[in-house]
Structure formats: structure tokens, C-alpha cells
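A student in our group prepared the protein record below, which I am reviewing. Here is the record exactly as it was handed to me.
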Amino acid sequence: MTGQLHEKAKACFREHFWREPDGVVFAPGRVNLIGEHVDYNDGLVLPMPVSAGTAIAWAQTDGDRIDAFAADFGEEDSFTANDPEKPQGVDWRSYIRGMAAQMGGSLPAMQLAITGDLPKGSGLSSSASLCIAAGRAFAEAGGLAVDATTLARRAQHTEHDFAGVACGIMDQMAVAAGKAGEAMLLDCRDLSYSHVALPDDWGVVVIESGVTRGLVDGEYNARRQQCEAAARALGVTSLRDADLDMVENAKLPQPEKNRALHVIGEIARVREARAAIADANLSDFGRILREGHASLRDLFEVSHPEVDRLVERVQEAIGEVGGVRMTGAGFGGSVVAVMPGDKVDRIMQDYAGRALRVI
């Protein structure tokens, strides 16, 4: 956590609750380098945490309620600590209450002041960041030992039950267990993972497209349902167990066929990307990113014309060595660019106010 965000959370707490907090917790956002829409298909992914995220200042108090203040929205919430109800709409309250509901009925009364520097709807997993930060605040306040994987599962359940998004586990695991400055090779079937250091002369930048994405409009859930339908038609538990020959021989209808082709190809691209990192081969890694974007655009149909244009412009700026693709669930959000480190400053200048340097 940056010192600035830490101090901002403490200041927000003092201004709203007129006392000092007992502690401050932080959870980062994440960018996914490759492996999009495969986590709920038991696939492999390669995300990494970013420096921006969510900070929560907290303190125990008397009574049986949790009082939360979202400083960035100027909004409040108050609910019974160990019996939170779902709010009527889906907003930041959904995630705070959902995480409280996941903590096993052992939370003390407390006050929370929440702030962050992740742009909402940018595809950098602001919701997972909020969930993990809330879980860490609840664990600290309640004196509970919660490992990263358990915390990630609780955050995923919160997305499912309180926000209505049938997401996979990648975002939550990357936020809860990621290591700053390194990628995470995560197997979404068994949640085994390893940290992967990128070559020192590579740079990673995330650039906002300006198109705010939303997932609860049904498109994300529809893609998951289409993948599940394809797996059933192929006779496999998940598309992780399928291959291209199976898809061609099964004569799947559309859009299920294209969804399956993307997932199978994307899992293979994650393996190729890991090998490219090991070989320090940025040209190969860039090609993999470009192929991933084309698949998300054409087969999975989750890109956006503005995102496609941004990908083309940034790719032209960084040249043939390195690559750019949309990142996150799609329908807007951000792009990720991996490039020679000596080109990062130029990209940061060209997209000032929209770019976030990851490494």
C-alpha cells in the first residue's frame, strides 16, 4: 500500500468517526496478462497485482453493528455484524455485507472507512480488491486467522451471492495471494500457484479505454452459461478437459463452438506465455497477447470498438516487440501492454492520466 493511500484512509476515518482507527489494511487491484475467461473453465491464468487498490481503516466499537463509510462516494452503511442482509441494489455495500456474511458469525462491532485509487469499471478488479480488503479488516478486527485461498473463496462467494456475478476465482486469488511486481501462474482447478518474475528489461502498463464496463447486465453470466453448455455437449466436466479435435468432431452450434475454441486456445496461450517468460522472449510474448486479443474479440465477443482501436494505437507505438490486448472480463475497461522497459516512459506520457505503470 502506498503511504498516501494509507494516510488517506486514516484521515477519512478520523474525519467521519472522530477517533483514531485501530488499524489499516490494503488489497491491490490486478491486471491479467493472459488467460481471460478461463478461470471458470478450470483453466490456467497469468495475472499480477497492481500498485493501486483499496485501503480500509477500521476500529472496534460497542454494540453489534458494522458502520461503514465509503469516502470516495460520500456514502454510509450500517448493518448487523453477524447477520447482514443483502442490499436491494448492487453497489459497494453488497461487497462489504457479503464479506461480513462469509466470516462465520464471529465479527465484533466495528467502524470502517473505505477509500481507493482503482478506477471503477476499468477491468482492474476493483470489486475483488474491495472484498479482499474488507475480509482483511474483518479478520484483523475479529482476531481471525484466514489464509489467502480461504479469503479468495469467500470473496468469490460474495460476488456470486451478493452481487449476482458468476465469476471465477482468478481475480480474488491474484488480489489475495499475488506478489507485488510479479505475475502469478494460477491453476484455477486446484488453486495451486507459483510466482513468476518477469525479465528486468520488460515493462507492463495498463491503459484505461474510457469505456466503463459492467458485468451484471447478463453478458458475463451468459458467456459462462455458453461455456458450460459446450462442456456438457462435449461430455467433459469443464472445457479445461476439451481439445480442438473434440470441438470440431462434436459439431457444436454457435456461439458455443466459438466460446469453446477461445477457452481451449487461451489455456494453451498461458502455457506458451510462461515459456516465453522463461526464455525472456518478448517477441513471442507479444504475439501471444495479440492472438489473445483477437480471440476475445472474434470468438468470445467481449471486446469493444474503442478498446480495439486503443489496442491498435498502443501496438503501433511500442512496435513489433511486445504486445497489447484487452484485459479483464471485457465490454470496455482497460488494455494491458507488455513492452521493452525503455518504452514505458513514452507510453506513460502519451496516455497521461489514463495509464498505470505496473513494472
Notes: Residues 251 and 257 are 8 Å apart (CA to CA).
